[in-house]
Amino acid sequence: MQLRKLKPLAAAAAAASLAVAALTAVATAGHAATVSPAALSSNWYAAAPYLMPLDNNPPDAGAVMDATGLKAFQLAFILAPSGGGCSPTWGGTAPVSSDTAVASTIAAIRAKGGDVSASVGGYGGTKLGQTCGTPEATAAAYQQVISKYSLKAMDFDLEEPEYENTAAIHNEIGAAKILQANNPGIYISVTTAGTAAGTGWFGTQMLNEAKSQGFTPNNYSIMPFDGGFSGASSQTSALTNFNTILQSTFGWSAATAYAHEGFSGMNGRSDSGEYFYQADFQTVLDYATSHGMARFTFWSVNRDRQCTPADNNGTTSGTCSSVTQSAYDFSKYSVKFAGATPPTTTPTPTPTPTSACTVAEWTSTAIYTAGNEVAHNGHKWKAKWWTQGEEPGTTGVWGVWQDEGTC
């Protein structure tokens, strides 16, 4: 994509305007609804990788932008309150209504010319589609998020166990359709599990629910990892098969199906021990661009940095990739998909504050309750709720333990 060049006087005026806007954005971080940024072009929302702003030792978003040229992030995840109810929270614990921390992150990103999308759902926690009862109530909860942060994009990450609940999926798809109608121009993606066949029974059921409601998002994306995948060839095969599913479900041509199809990968070592390297990302990126696909994203920016040691002793982490890399290598593939060229030199990332592990080592037999702190694999962790035997930083339990940084 080419941007129009401003004439010198217009450029100076624009720069001054951006400076004022940046100061205003930072000053009003706690009231993000008052900030109304111009939407980025849709290719940036299509390329936005996932970032957990409150968990998994989040990197400085501005440093990522400087190092990679990235302009958009997919903030994760909006959930129902852990105690139940139909009001949106970050991660089940931080109410959107009183949030200032995520709002501050969003303001800083927008001050640098970027923007964000919010992702709802994900693997863990209770989803609003499960608790709100109707599509209308679910949409009203998500509208609070859109209004609070002046969002121009939203992702519906529909996977286990929610997508096995037909009522919940009916509510989520119905809510997405309502939001699409009530927020003209909003960019909506729907993300679901990937299999070698493209997607499984529940993913296909979700597509059929969307068809029955007459809802068409900007794209349907699959996550071809954690399902016996091995490198890029298995992922591109799944994407080809998913394209066939989209064709048969909606009556689309192959080209139309690709124009509504997306890829959501996992960088480095996956939850189930699969490995996806930089070369795999390049192969899938080439496939996506050559087939005119609508989205290329990955989980996650929090993991887009090298562990110590690099292989993380053969384990998966929520805060690093478990493969050899330079900081934010994988984010640069998102930048390429958006049509931009990453910087040739990488600025030194802002160092993440560390904390001393002055707490006891985690054990699998101990019972922990909300607020308990432990040390594990060189990090300090805090329990969000009751847990036993769920190892910090491993498969499926990132929502249980909050990573408080390295020791």
From TrEMBL:
Q: Which UniProt keywords apply?
A: Hydrolase, Signal
Biological process annotations from GO: carbohydrate metabolic process
In this chain the Chitin-binding type-3 domain maps to 359-404
| Signal sequence annotation | 1-32
A single GO molecular function term of this UniProt record? hydrolase activity, hydrolyzing O-glycosyl compounds
- Cellular component terms, GO, for this chain's entry? extracellular region
InterPro entries the record matches = CBM5/12, CBM_sf_5/12, GH, GH18_Chitinase
Q: Which superkingdom is the protein from?
A: Bacteria
The name this protein goes by in its record: Chitinase
